Task: inverse folding
C-alpha cells in the first residue's frame, strides 16, 4: 500500500496516488526489505523537476510497471531537497556506475541500501527491462550482485575521502592569476557563462570573479561578468514579466530555460547582481534585483515569514506554458504594440519554442531600439515597463505552476544573504526588513535547544535534523546581517551555531566537516562535500565562516581551521576553479581580507549605509551603536561621538568622525 499520503513533502505527495507501493526513507523500511529479502528501489527527485513528472506519468502511474515494482522490490521515494545526504550518496553511485547523474535519480540497491545500479530517467519499457533483469540476478546470482555492491560502496568511501594535506603551502596572489588563466579558456565571451550547453548560472563563479576583477582591474574579467549578467537577464532564463530566474538554460544563449524557479538560485543571484551594481552602477542590475525580490515577496513567502522552495516547470502538463506566449495571444493583448514587442523579444509567428509558443528573449541592447525607432531611452523603458505590466495582468488568468511550499533552512539562509547584499547596494528598507523577517523565522521555528537546527518547515512544524549546509549558510547569513545592522546578537548566534557544528559535524582527522550530524542514523557512508556546484559546498562555506569569525572574535584557531580546509582542496581549486569557486574566495580572503572598518557610536548605522554602497570585498566591517566587548570594538566607544577606525594587522589609524573621509580613503585604495 502506498504510504506517501502521510508525508508533508510536496514531491512525495505528488506520488501518493501511484499504484506503486511507495514508502519514505525510514530505518524500518530498510529492515522490511531485509526481512522480505527484496531489493530496494530508491527513487530521488524534487517537486519542480520536469523529467521526474515525465517518468511518473510514464512508469509510476502505470499498473504494469507498478506490478513489477511491488512484486520484486521495496520502493522508496526521496525528496532530494529534504534529504541531501541520501541524494549525495546515490548520486555518487550513479557517477560511479554510469558516469553521469541528474534527476530523477533511480537506484537499485541491496536490502541494506548498498547500491548495485543507478541511473536517471528511464522510458517505461527500459525501466521494466532493468527491473526484471536485476530481480532475476538477485534470485539466481545473488553473490554477483553482492560483490558489485561492495565494489560500488568501496568507491563511495573513496569519493568521500578528503585526505589531510600535511605540508605547508605558500599562498600568494599569483595563485589567483593562475586560476584566471585556466578559467579564461572556458568562458563564452559571446553569450556569457561557460562555453557549451546546457548552461547553469553558477552564481558563486561570479562572486569570485567580481572580487578578482576588483583586485586586478583586468578588463577581460570585467567583460566576462558583464556579458554573463546581461545575457542571463536578456534570455528566457529570466522572467521579465514577474521576476526571478529559472534553473538553467538548455541552450548556450540562455534562450530556453528549464522553467522551474528555485529559491537557492534566486537568493544567490540577488547577491551577484547587487554586488555588480556596487561595482558598476548599471541600472539593469538594480531592476533585476528589485523584480526578483518582489517575486519572492509576492509569490513565495509563507505567512510564517519563511520562503517556499520552488515553482514547478510545468503547468497544465506542459513545460513552460505559464511563461510563454503564442503570437496570436500577443497580437490580441498588445494590439498596436505587437510589432514592437515582437522585435524586442524575437517573437515568431510559428513560435520560437515548442507548441507554437514563444519565450520572451532579447538579443539587442536598448540603444539598438532607440536608434531603430528614433525614441529616447526613457520612452523605451516606459514602453517596455507598461507592456510588462499588461502581460503580467494577463498572465494572472493562466494556470500558475505548482509551488513547492516546504521551507528549507539552507535555502532561506541563502536568500537572507542575498537580501543583505541587496540592502548594501540599494539601501532599500524593504530588503533589510525581509532579511530580518526570514532570519527570525529560522530562529523561531527551526532552531531547537543548544543551537540545533531543523532543516524543514511545513504545516506549522519543523522536522529533519539539520545538515551541514543548513548550519553553514545560516551562519553566513547571520554574519551578513551583522554587517548591515551592526547588531551584536547576530554575530553571537553565528558563533554559537559554529560551536555546535564543530561539536557534531567536525572530522578531527582531516579538518573537514561531514554533511550529517553524529546524532543522525548512519547511512552506508558518511558524506563529505568539497566541490562547489550551483550551490557552493557546505565545507567551503564553513571555511569562509571560520575565517570571518576568527577576525570578529580574535580566534586564531578558527583561522587555522579555515586554512587547513583550504590546503586540503587547493590542488583541485587550481585545476578546476569553476567547480571550486567558493574555495577560490576562501583563498582570496586569506590573501586580501586584511583590513577592518570599525564604526562605533550612535550614528553608526547611518554612516555605514553610505559606505555599504561601495563594493569593498577587501574590507571587513563591524561596529555598534553602543559600547561593546567584541575584540575589535572594545574600549573604542566615546560618548556623543560616532567614530570610524580603519585597522590593518590589529593596528588602527587615528579615528575619523567624517565618513566621507573614510569613503575617500577607501576609494583611493580601490
Result:
Amino acid at each position: 500500500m502506498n504510504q506517501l499520503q502521510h508525508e508533508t513533502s510536496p514531491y512525495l505527495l505528488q506520488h501518493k496516488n501511484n499504484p506503486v507501493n511507495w514508502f519514505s526513507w525510514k530505518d524500518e523500511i530498510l529492515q522490511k526489505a531485509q526481512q522480505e529479502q527484496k531489493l530496494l528501489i530508491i527513487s530521488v527527485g524534487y517537486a519542480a523537476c520536469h523529467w521526474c513528472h515525465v517518468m511518473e506519468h510514464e512508469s509510476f502511474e502505470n499498473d504494469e510497471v507498478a506490478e513489477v515494482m511491488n512484486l520484486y522490490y521495496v520502493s522508496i521515494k526521496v525528496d532530494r531537497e529534504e534529504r541531501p545526504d541520501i541524494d549525495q550518496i546515490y548520486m555518487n553511485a550513479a557517477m560511479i556506475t554510469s558516469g553521469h547523474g541528474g534527476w530523477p535519480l533511480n537506484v537499485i540497491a541491496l536490502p541494506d541500501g548498498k547500491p548495485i545500479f543507478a541511473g536517471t530517467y528511464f522510458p517505461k519499457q527500459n525501466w521494466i527491462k532493468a527491473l526484471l533483469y536485476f530481480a532475476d540476478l538477485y534470485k539466481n546470482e545473488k553473490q554477483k550482485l553482492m560483490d558489485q555492491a561492495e565494489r560500488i560502496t568501496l568507491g563511495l568511501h573513496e569519493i568521500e575521502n578528503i585526505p589531510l594535506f600535511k605540508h605547508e603551502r605558500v599562498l600568494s596572489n599569483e595563485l589567483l592569476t593562475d586560476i584566471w588563466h585556466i578559467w579564461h579558456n572556458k568562458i563564452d565571451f559571446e553569450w556569457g557563462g561557460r562555453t557549451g550547453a546546457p548552461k547553469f548560472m553558477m552564481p558563486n563563479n561570479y562572486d569570485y570573479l567580481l572580487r578578482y576583477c576588483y583586485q586586478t582591474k583586468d578588463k577581460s574579467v570585467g567583460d566576462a561578468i558583464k556579458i554573463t549578467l546581461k545575457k542571463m537577464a536578456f534570455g528566457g532564463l529570466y522572467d521579465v514579466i514577474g521576476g526571478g530566474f529559472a534553473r538553467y538554460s538548455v541552450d548556450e544563449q540562455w534562450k530556453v530555460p528549464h522553467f522551474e524557479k528555485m529559491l537557492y538560485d534566486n537568493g544567490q543571484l540577488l547577491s551577484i547582481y547587487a554586488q555588480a551594481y556596487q561595482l558598476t552602477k548599471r541600472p539593469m542590475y538594480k531592476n533585476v534585483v528589485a523584480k526578483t525580490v518582489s517575486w519572492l515577496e509576492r509569490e513565495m513567502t509563507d505567512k510564517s515569514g519563511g520562503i517556499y522552495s520552488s515553482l514547478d516547470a510545468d503547468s497544465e502538463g506542459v513545460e513552460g506554458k505559464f511563461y510563454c506566449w503564442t503570437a496570436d495571444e500577443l497580437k490580441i493583448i498588445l494590439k498596436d504594440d505587437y510589432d514592437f514587442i515582437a522585435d524586442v523579444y524575437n517573437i515568431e509567428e510559428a513560435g520560437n519554442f515548442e507548441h507554437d509558443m514563444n519565450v520572451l528573449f532579447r538579443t539587442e541592447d536598448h540603444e539598438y531600439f532607440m536608434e531603430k525607432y528614433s525614441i529616447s531611452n526613457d520612452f523605451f523603458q516606459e514602453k517596455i515597463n507598461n507592456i510588462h505590466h499588461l502581460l503580467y495582468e494577463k498572465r494572472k488568468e493562466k494556470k500558475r505552476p505548482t509551488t513547492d511550499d516546504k521551507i528549507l533552512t539552507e535555502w532561506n539562509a541563502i536568500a537572507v544573504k542575498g537580501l543583505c547584499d541587496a540592502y548594501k547596494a540599494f539601501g532599500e528598507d524593504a530588503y533589510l526588513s525581509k532579511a530580518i523577517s526570514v532570519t527570525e523565522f529560522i530562529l523561531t521555528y527551526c532552531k531547537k535547544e543548544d543551537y540545533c537546527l531543523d532543516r524543514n518547515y511545513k504545516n506549522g512544524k519543523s522536522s529533519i535534523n539539520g545538515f551541514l549546509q543548513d548550519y553553514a549558510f545560516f551562519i553566513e547569513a547571520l554574519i551578513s546581517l551583522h554587517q548591515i545592522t551592526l547588531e551584536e546578537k547576530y554575530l553571537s548566534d553565528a558563533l554559537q551555531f559554529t560551536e555546535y557544528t564543530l561539536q557534531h559535524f567536525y572530522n578531527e582527522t582531516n579538518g573537514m566537516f561531514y554533511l550529517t550530524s553524529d546524532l543522525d542514523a548512519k547511512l552506508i557512508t558518511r558524506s563529505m562535500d568539497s566541490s562547489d556546484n550551483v550551490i557552493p559546498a557546505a565545507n567551503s562555506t564553513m571555511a569562509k565562516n571560520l575565517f570571518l569569525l576568527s577576525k570578529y572574535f580574535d580566534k586564531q584557531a578558527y583561522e587555522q581551521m579555515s586554512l587547513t580546509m583550504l590546503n586540503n582542496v587547493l590542488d583541485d581549486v587550481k585545476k578546476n576553479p569553476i567547480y571550486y569557486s567558493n574555495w577560490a574566495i576562501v583563498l582570496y580572503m586569506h590573501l586580501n581580507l586584511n583590513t577592518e572598518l570599525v564604526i562605533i557610536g550612535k550614528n553608526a548605522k547611518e554612516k555605514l549605509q553610505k559606505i555599504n554602497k561601495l563594493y569593498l570585498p577587501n574590507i571587513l566591517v563591524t561596529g555598534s551603536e553602543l559600547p561593546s566587548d567584541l575584540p575589535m570594538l572594545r574600549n573604542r566607544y566615546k560618548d556623543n561621538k560616532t567614530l570610524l577606525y580603519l585597522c590593518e594587522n590589529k593596528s588602527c589609524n587615528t579615528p575619523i568622525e567624517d565618513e566621507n573621509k573614510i569613503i575617500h580613503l577607501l576609494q583611493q585604495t580601490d
In short: Residues 556-575 form the longest helix (20 residues). The radius of gyration is 26 Å. The domain at 595-669 is CATH 3.40.30 (Glutaredoxin). Residues 41 and 75 are 5 Å apart (CA to CA).
